[in-house]
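Section handout 9: paired folding examples.
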Amino acid sequence: MKNRLKVERAILNITQEELAQKIGVSRQTINSIETNRFVPSTVLALKLSKLFGKSVNDFFELEVEEK
């Protein structure tokens, strides 16, 4: 799964730590999502969606082999 979390976070000019605090996870969780080592739960994806005011599909996309 590919994601645009790092790009979207940069657009808002917030750190991993700030984002983590806003959605109630650790900075390491944000880092793991951004580096594709962790696939977030539905709840976490929805929290990101709400915070950024964008669809979950704006953040996450299946790779060709996953479709």
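Moving on to protein 2 of 2.
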Amino acid sequence: MDDSEQSEQMSDDTTPKPQTDPAHFFSTDIRVGRILTVEEFPAARKPAYKITADFGPAGVLATSAQVTNYSPAELKDRLVIGVINLGKKRIAGFTSEFLILGSYDEEGAVHLLSPEPVAAPGHVIG
């Protein structure tokens, strides 16, 4: 499932997912990142940006994200929450290396999750 299919599924699904083993959740590496760059991504099927973020000791990673309800200036230097160990995925010739987390409103717009201002790149979310 690419980012656009995932976005459609998440924004349309209001039914809670079934119970899962906590080990599945705790196997994900969720960390604080700081957005370094935001670029237009015209090759994406749905409006998206190419974003790079600094995850501290975990390194600088890139992703494609359908967060165009934010301007690039609003995103630059923003602290975000990302899942960094889901593997790499090719999206329209671009390698996405992490999943930026947010919630969806009724219109399907993404509202990014943000840590407290004292958080720093690389801090673990648990």
